[in-house]
Specification:
Elements: H1 11-20, E1 27-29, E2 32-34, E3 43-44, E4 52-53, E5 59-60, E6 63-66, H2 78-87, E7 92-98, E8 103-104, E9 109-110, E10 114-121, E11 127-134, H3 136-151, E12 155-162, H4 169-172, H5 209-226, E13 232-238, H6 244-258, E14 267-268, H7 284-293, E15 302-304, H8 313-324, E16 329-333, H9 353-369, E17 375-376, E18 381-383, E19 387-390, E20 394-399, E21 404-408, E22 415-422, E23 427-428, E24 432-435, E25 439-443, E26 450-455
Parallel strand pairs: 6-16, 7-12, 12-13, 13-14, 15-16
Antiparallel strand pairs: 1-2, 3-4, 4-5, 8-9, 10-11, 17-19, 18-21, 19-20, 20-26, 21-25, 22-23, 22-24, 22-26
Helix pairs in contact: 3-5, 5-6, 7-8, 8-9
Length: 456
């Protein structure tokens, strides 16, 4: 596959550059304007828009695991957490940057991007925030985290703002954009509702110019710190239910500001559906149906489970297999990775070690089956319950309830090599031969879910 970064232009382009005395060659590649030595970061694959393409030009499937405090909790060892993901073949993690308030309760900390210089004290008894004075430690940690992820081939979804906490009065009272907590006259609740949820004039709105100005200043500093990294994308806000216009305006702001930078990154929800907008259910059949229903959007669909936490590993496993066998991607909200007494987790997530092995099995299966070269093929399943993906050289089927399935192989003639895969145990069965060209019945080894891989 052609690399989408430019080292040298063609001879006639180099001549044009020399004539105008420029040191950069402008090329328009898939809608991105590149400098001569710039690279295209993670982006939507131009040939198969249901998948991503990394900076090397390789088409990839994102399979991730994440928790809340990866960045914002200064006691959190993100490098060890990324090692855990990498050890299981995972390549994706979602990261909150700015929760809105500072805390240090002895259990964990929560950092903010602003210095607290006063005059006067905020509602937590500490000096008020100055929203024009950024704390360099915040952006140093951001860059260090991105470096650690890059070294481990982990892609990051950077959440710029959190809107979940705006609806909780005791948390909003601590927010840096609360009128009593900053020295800049920035008021995320001018109607005095006690929350930050006012979609007309609140934190997530276009009706408060000072708020918007402070948000844009923060975004500029984040982009300045993170623009050098290829393996990131941005999400404007977590759980903004208050103003879609505000979110899209900030997407445009990121894109406009990054046009002055070497790299232009994907931004949710302008370029991709937000994390909660694809599907929110643990039912494998419903996940499959939702993925197929949204396939017409011609963009990667990430099944992100940050809406509820389940302790049922079987539910998680079946839902994530359904997502990937429907041409999508998967990102698991994993509280076992969250440190602190509330969750009793750890960086290695040992409390969900079994589940993590199962996610790793899916990642290995996706790589070997080459999902990114396949398309969902519901018509191949003639009898039984299964989710099928196929290309000219391969076929993958997931049976969420095991049992028997009849596949129509009339369009796939010739001799094929098949293997059963046990998603629960993470094991592969022995090879067996299958002759295509007509209907073929397959029966799973036992009653739980199974996957079947066929290769030419």
């Amino acid at each position: 596959m052609q690399r989408l970064w430019v080292n040298r232009g063609p001879a006639n382009q180099r001549m044009a550059v020399s004539m105008i005395g420029s040191v950069l060659l402008g090329l328009l590649v898939a809608g991105q304007t590149l400098g001569e030595n710039a690279r295209v970061p993670l982006r939507i694959d131009p040939v198969n828009p249901h998948y991503f393409q990394d900076s090397s030009g390789k088409r990839i499937v994102l399979i991730g695991d994440y928790t809340w405090g990866t960045f914002s909790d200064t006691k959190y060892d993100f490098a060890t957490m990324f090692d855990t993901l990498r050890a299981h073949g995972l390549n994706f993690s979602r990261v909150w940057l700015f929760w809105g308030y500072e805390t240090d309760d002895g259990d964990r900390t929560n950092m903010v991007p602003y210095l607290r210089l006063g005059p006067g004290n905020a509602n937590d008894g500490k000096p008020r925030y100055d929203l024009t004075q950024f704390d360099p430690r915040f952006f140093e940690r951001l860059r260090a985290m991105c470096v650690a992820a890059r070294r481990r081939d982990i892609h990051l979804q950077l959440v710029l703002f959190d809107a979940w906490m705006l609806k909780h009065p005791h948390l909003w009272k601590l927010h840096a954009f609360h009128r009593e907590n900053n020295v800049n006259g920035v008021d995320g609740d001018p109607r005095n509702t006690g929350l930050g949820t006012d979609g007309e004039r609140g934190f997530c709105s276009l009706g408060s110019p000072k708020v918007l100005e402070a948000q844009q200043a923060f975004i500029r500093r984040v982009v300045d710190a993170a623009n050098e990294f290829d393996d990131i994308l941005f999400e404007i806000a977590n759980e903004n239910f208050y103003s879609k216009e505000w979110e899209l305006r900030l997407c445009d702001f990121v894109h406009d500001y990054e046009r002055t930078k070497p790299r232009q990154h994907l931004v949710m929800p302008k370029d991709l559906l937000n994390h909660g907008s694809v599907v929110q259910t643990w039912d494998a059949g419903a996940v499959h149906a939702a993925m197929l229903a949204k396939r017409g959007l011609q963009q990667p669909l990430i099944f992100d489970t940050d809406w509820t936490i389940t302790r049922n590993d079987n539910q998680v496993r079946k839902a994530m297999w359904a997502a990937l066998l429907s041409g999508g991607h998967f990102n698991y909200m994993d509280d076992s990775l969250q440190i602190g007494s509330e969750h009793k987790g750890d960086f290695q997530g040992s409390r969900r070690a079994s589940l993590r092995r199962q996610i790793g099995c899916l990642a290995a299966f996706a790589a070997q089956a080459r999902f990114s070269e396949m398309e969902p093929k519901e018509a191949l399943v003639k009898e039984g319950i299964g989710f099928a993906m196929a290309s000219s050289n391969g076929l993958a089927v997931y049976l969420p309830s095991g049992g028997s399935i009849t596949l129509d192989l009339s369009g796939l003639p010739g001799l094929w090599e098949a293997k059963w895969v046990d998603p629960l145990a993470g094991t592969w069965g022995e090879k067996f031969a299958v002759r295509g060209g007509g209907p073929e019945n397959f029966t799973a080894p036992n009653a739980h879910d199974w996957a079947l891989a066929l290769h030419k």
